[in-house]
Each structure stands twice: as C-alpha cells, then as structure tokens.
Specification:
There is one protein chain. This protein has 478 residues and is of the alpha/beta class. 33% of the residues lie in helices and 21% in strands. The protein is built from 15 helices and 21 strands. Strands 10, 11, 12, 16, 18, 19, 20 and 21 form an 8-stranded mixed sheet that branches. A 7-stranded mixed sheet has the order 1-2-3-4-5-7-9, with helices on both faces. A two-stranded parallel ribbon has the order 6-8. The longest helix is centred in the N-terminal third of the chain and has 18 residues.
C-alpha cells in the first residue's frame, strides 16, 4: 500500500506501478541546509519521492521529482535519497526508473548539493550494465541533470512540457529559443541520440511498463521470458513487402506482432528495438530504406546506405544487449556508407564503434540478409566475419563488394554497353549472388522470406547455451 503524499510526483508513480504496490522510502527526509532562510521554506521529502513497487509483478525502484517543492531543485538530501535508492537496486538486482521534473541544482546548498549530486553520477556508473536504468523527463532536465539521462539505458520525454539541455538555448552564441529551441523534445529526439520516444505523459508511463516487461531485472538473472502464445511455425507471408521499413518486418517476426522500437527519431536509416521470439526477449538491429506511418503512407525514404548516426545508434544498442545477455538479431540490407561532408567527419569512428560492438558481443547473434549486402557496410552489420553465429539470407539477396554493373564498369573501363552488361551478369553470378556467398560458407542457409520467423526461432533455440571465451583484458577502448 502506498504511503506517498499526494502530488503530481506521487501520481506519476502510482500511475506507473501496479495498483497499491508502491512503498515510499525516506518520506521524512528534508533539507539540512539553514543558509539563506532555508529554515523558513518547507521541503517535504526534499523534493523527491523515492521507493519501490512492482510492474506486472517485477520489482522496480522509482524516484519522482516534485516540482511543487522548491521547484524540484536538487539539494544535498534530495541527491542522497536517489543515491540510496541505487544502493538498494544494485543489492537486489532490480531496475531504477527516474521521473524527472527539476529546475536544476539548489543554489542555497552550493557545494553540499554538488558533492551529493556527483554521488548520483557515481551510482549510475556503477549500476550501468548491472541493472536497467530508465529515465522519463516530464518537465525541465537542465544543466548537470541532463547528464543523468545520458547515463541511463532508455530515456523518454514528454512532448509539450519536457525540456532537456546542458546549456539553455539562449546561452548558445548566436541562438535563441525562437530561432532554434535546442531544449525542446523534438530537437533532443532527432539530434542527440538520447531520446527513445516523445509522447504524452500517459503514453510514456505505458511505454515504460511495456519496456520493463521485456527487460531482464539485472545482468545475472535473465527473467525476461514469457509464455509464447503465437505459432512458432507461423509463416510471414507479407514480410518481403516490408523489407524497406524493417520496423514493420520485425513486427512480422515477433511473437504476436509486438516490436518495441528504441531511439525512434534518431538515425532513422537504422531500426533498433526489442521483441520476443518464442517468449524470449531479443534485441534487433536492422537497416531501413523507408518509413511508413500507421495509415500505411510512406513518410520518409533513404538511399540504402548506413549513416554515422545509424551506426552509433546500433552500436550503443548492441552493447546494451550484450551487457544484459539479450540475444541480437540483425536484418541486413545496406549498399555502403552515407557519403556527405557532414557524416564523413565521424563516419570512420562510428563504424568502428559498430564493428567493435558486434565483434565483442558474446551473446547469440543471428543475421538475416534481406536485400543487398555490399562492401564493408555489410561486413560491419553483424556478418559472419565479425562474429555472427548464424547467417541466413533471403533467396533474392545480393552479397558482394558492390553492385555488379558498377563493378563491371570499373573492371572494364571504356567498354561498350554490351560488354558491360555481359560482364555485369557474369560478376553477379560469380561474386554477388546469394548462392556464391553460401558456397563459400558466408551464408549458412538460403531461406524464403516467409520462413524467416521459424528459422530465427530455431537458431536462437540452438544458441541458447552458447558460451564464448575472449582474451583476458580489462575492457576495450573503442
């Protein structure tokens, strides 16, 4: 039974958790500072409600900042309450969910507040890779507080009132809120790579509940299994038509058609997210060339290349999956790397991060080539050479160095069109066909698109007991 005081902060908690499951911790804690007439200001719970409860029976720890108490500012005891919550979460192996609505650091407490706030960073870092961390921004999340979502695994932001920034828009030279609101949910979602979804408050709380049900409680206890009520041998009859928008294709593979997409507005040429296959949670990374809305209308189109943002997005997601022992599925359909001056600045670094993430991950890894797989972009997308355990390819896939016609033009410069066409056909058969790749062992099985679900399920069942030793070292540096 909840004993939280009734406020917007506590209402968010009760809306998030199973009914009557919240137990508040530290309700009597209040500000310790007496400077600048702080004794005259009431600070119940020091502006943050902390405690634990359950989501669909799963234990979670929650803190919710109360903007009605000193504008939700972070003081010494406020920060110490959050740190103490992390201590409990690490000890018991359960996720931490932060509901943020904060006006920043409490000026009246100065270095005491800063010291305690640094403790939150430290606890988050210790918890990273041990327990899932989720943040939802409902109001302001500025300055040092903006680092908190950056240290968590998933972040949601309220569409209208949510604001996140390190430096406010008006503090940026040559900028202002009217010119470019860098604190707005839309900007943060599309440009920073920190935001998983921009939605209403009610939608965010529902999304967090669904996310928690998909995630393991911690890195040691993978309790994210559920009974599968879908047909394990169900054919995906229309999946070939979904090859452009792989968020839809992944929903066709998933149990009961449920796919939870992450980082939805960032690096949209790559899809990342979570789904269940045979009741087991699997992380998915897929190239995307088209985006369709809920009405089935095409809203965006990409050229089939891999962008630097897409690579960074995928790399971070694969690292998360590996940390929590979540198997990884990839759908590969890529023709090369995005070629722009802007992307070239960070392209090599981003691709390096992606290759490192796939190569260092020891979880079961399955790759399905659903279209074109050209050049080193294909190699980086969980190819067998960088560690995929099983590689399937649709029977219409193309795998090779580059498009056959382009290869022929390079090998036979200045030749007539008839010669180019002849050599392109020959190159396509000998070097770019799926049969050629399978003959060399780069593809394990050529499959019909409709059979994708049952082959993926079978592969992950076979790989369930996978164990893989790696060279002893502290950690990589990429």
């Amino acid at each position: 039974m909840s004993n939280a005081t009734q406020s917007l902060a506590s209402t968010r908690i009760t809306s998030l958790l199973d009914a009557n499951s919240f137990v508040e911790i530290g309700k009597s804690v209040t500000a310790r500072s007496t400077d600048f007439n702080m004794t005259e200001k009431k600070a119940p719970s020091d502006g943050v409600i902390t405690g634990y409860g359950v989501i669909d029976g799963n234990l979670v720890y929650v803190y919710s900042q109360d903007a009605s108490v000193l504008n939700g500012t972070v003081g010494e005891m406020h920060a110490k309450k959050i740190s103490a919550l992390y201590d409990l979460a690490i000890k018991t192996g359960a996720p931490v969910i932060g509901l943020v609505d904060c006006a920043g650091m409490r000026l009246q407490e100065a270095t005491d507040a800063l010291e305690a706030f640094g403790g939150i960073y430290f606890k988050q870092t210790m918890a990273s890779g041990m327990i899932p961390q989720i943040t939802a921004v409902f109001g302001t999340c500025g300055g040092g507080m903006a680092v908190v979502p950056a240290l968590t695994d998933f972040t949601f932001i309220e569409a209208k009132k949510g604001k996140m920034f390190v430096n406010s828009p008006n503090a940026l030279d040559g900028n202002c809120t009217e010119k470019c609101d860098t604190a707005a949910a839309d900007y943060q979602s599309k440009e920073t790579g920190l935001i998983d979804a921009v939605e209403s408050e009610e939608e965010i709380l529902a999304e967090i509940r669904q996310l928690v049900s998909l995630l393991p409680s911690n890195f040691e206890d993978n309790d994210s299994f559920a009974e599968c009520t879908d047909d394990l041998n169900r054919a995906c009859e229309d999946i070939a038509a979904c090859a452009g928008d792989t968020s839809i294709a992944l929903s066709r593979i998933a149990d009961n058609g449920i796919f939870f997409e992450t980082k939805r507005d960032y690096g949209k040429d790559v899809v990342t997210g979570l789904l269940r296959v045979n009741g087991m949670t699997v992380g998915a990374v897929a190239n995307r060339t088209e985006v369709y809305d809920v009405e089935g209308e095409k809203t965006e189109e990409f050229d089939g290349t891999l962008s630097a943002r897409g690579a960074r997005k995928a790399a971070g997601f694969v690292k998360f999956c590996d940390a929590f022992d979540i198997p990884v599925l990839t759908l590969t359909n890529v023709t090369g790397f995005n070629a722009t001056v802007c992307s070239e600045k960070v392209m090599a670094k981003s691709i390096g991060e992606l290759v490192h993430a796939f190569a260092s991950a020891t979880v079961p890894k399955v790759n399905v080539i659903i279209g074109k797989a050209y050049g080193t972009a294909y190699v980086a997308m969980n190819s067998k050479s960088v560690g995929a355990d099983i590689v399937y390819a649709w029977d219409n896939a193309e795998i090779g160095m580059m498009d056959a016609s382009m290869a022929a033009k390079i090998m036979y410069p200045g030749s007539e069109a008839s010669v180019i066409n002849e050599k392109a056909a020959e190159y396509r058969e000998l070097q770019s066909s799926v049969e050629s790749a399978a003959a060399r062992g780069y593809v394990d099985t050529v499959i019909a698109p409709a059979d994708t679900r049952k082959y993926v399920i079978g592969a992950f069942e076979m790989l369930f007991t996978k164990r893989e030793d790696r060279p002893a070292k502290k950690h990589g540096t990429v």
